[in-house]
């Protein structure tokens, strides 16, 4: 293969690039791995790279935090310099973070082919910055690599030509299946004194949930109530933890069966996830992982860009409806949680299908 540039910017990108990087390498592909540093926690980035057996990035920008415009502009300036020096045959961008759109824009201006992994997902909620990134990236990409049939349909409705669309499956599931066995070496269950399938997991990171104090407190109170039915683990960002403490939630949390901990590495988290009874989350990736694992997922949002996890998988949209959340947790603990099926091509072989498309395109 000719030289390929793969871009990561934040932790969700790592799980999407890792299996693809390994597959391209096995085929003799020449690759440059660029980490924009949009996710600026160096220690957490390092843990994820190690857990996923990813090589150290060839190029690291260290962009860090900032407004959407600031992040996008900084990445564009740096990436333009990189492409001018490397002149690759193809650039691979993944997901929907600001780095994804920024790098795609630079490629479009420089007439360098773009492959977008996880293309076609739509929440139809333009208040989500990620939705803007998804739509714009897809509109200028040359190879749209979709995880599900509904993603194909979204792209066709938007006027994308059929020949650009390639249904390859869900690359996140490649990383999940590859890591499950290794994750069994984790001692995280013992650390929390947990029994398999006897606890719930809570994750919150969406700005609409964690930056809005009223929403954050409401959701954590709901989780505390749910923890009366099963112990719950809440890996929480330090900034969110400060918000909880500053709003007098500390006493309520201490009185509940809800354990707060620092963010976890990928293998520790997958070990917890795969042994959990249910998950409360606002994460798109976790909606997919729980569907692949057959674990009931309650999504703390009003919509999802991954509707196949609802129509086919184990996901239920509950928003901030406390009564619905507690009813669904009760159903799950009573043995009547949602049973789903694994969607087509969520089989751990997506990296191979993507590589077939790329190899044909640039050979």
Question: What are the main properties of this structure?
Answer:
17 helices; alpha/beta; six-stranded parallel beta sheet; single chain; seven-stranded parallel beta sheet; globular; 363 residues
Note poorly predicted spans. Answer: none
**Strand sequence of the main sheet, in spatial order?**
3-2-1-4-5-6-7
* Beta content: 5-15%
User: Major sheet, described briefly?
Assistant: 7 strands, parallel
- DSSP, total strands: 13
Overview of this structure, please?
- This protein has 363 residues and is α/β, with parallel strands linked by helices.
- The chain has 17 helices and 13 strands.
- The protein has helices at 11-26, 42-51, 68-86, 98-110, 129-140, 149-157, 171-183, 188-191, 207-210, 213-226, 238-246, 250-255, 266-275, 284-293, 308-311, 322-333, 350-362, and strands at residues 4-8, 31-35, 59-60, 90-94, 114-117, 143-146, 165-167, 200-203, 232-235, 258-261, 278-281, 297-299, 315-317.
- The strands form two sheets. Strands 3-2-1-4-5-6-7 form a seven-stranded parallel sheet, sandwiched between helices.
- Strand 1 (4-8), helix 1 and strand 2 (31-35) form a beta-alpha-beta unit.
- The mean pLDDT is 94.
């Amino acid at each position: 293969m000719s030289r390929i540039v793969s871009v990561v910017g934040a932790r969700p990108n790592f799980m999407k690039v890792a299996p693809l990087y390994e597959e391209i390498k096995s085929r003799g592909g020449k690759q440059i791995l660029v980490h924009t540093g949009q996710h600026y926690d160096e220690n957490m980035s390092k843990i994820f790279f190690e857990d996923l057996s990813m090589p150290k990035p060839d190029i690291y920008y260290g962009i860090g935090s900032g407004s959407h415009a600031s992040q996008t502009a900084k990445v564009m300036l740096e990436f333009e310099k990189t492409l001018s020096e490397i002149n690759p045959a193809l650039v691979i961008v993944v997901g929907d973070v600001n780095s994804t759109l920024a790098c795609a824009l630079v490629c479009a201006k420089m007439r360098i082919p773009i492959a977008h992994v996880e293309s076609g997902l739509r929440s139809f909620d333009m208040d989500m910055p990620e939705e803007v990134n998804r739509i714009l990236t897809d509109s200028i990409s040359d190879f749209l690599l979709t995880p599900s049939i509904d993603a194909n349909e979204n792209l066709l409705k938007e006027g994308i030509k059929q020949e650009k669309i390639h249904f390859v499956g869900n690359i996140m599931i490649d990383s999940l299946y590859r890591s499950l066995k290794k994750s069994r070496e984790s001692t995280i269950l013992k650390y929390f004194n947990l029994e398999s399938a006897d606890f719930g997991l809570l994750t919150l990171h969406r700005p609409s949930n964690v930056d809005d104090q009223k929403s954050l407190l409401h959701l954590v109170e709901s989780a505390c109530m749910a923890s009366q039915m099963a112990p719950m683990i809440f890996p929480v960002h330090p900034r969110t933890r400060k918000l909880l403490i500053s709003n007098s939630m500390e006493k309520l949390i201490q009185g509940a069966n809800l354990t707060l901990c620092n963010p976890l590495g990928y293998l520790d988290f997958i070990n917890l996830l795969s042994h959990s009874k249910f998950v409360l989350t606002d994460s798109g990736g976790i909606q997919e992982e729980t569907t692949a694992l057959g674990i009931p997922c309650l999504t703390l949002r009003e919509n999802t860009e991954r509707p196949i996890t609802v129509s086919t998988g184990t996901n239920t949209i509950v928003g901030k409806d406390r009564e619905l959340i507690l009813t669904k947790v009760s159903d799950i603990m009573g043995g009547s949680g949602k049973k789903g099926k694994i969607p087509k091509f969520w089989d751990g072989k997506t990296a191979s299908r993507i590589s077939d498309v790329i190899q044909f395109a640039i050979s």
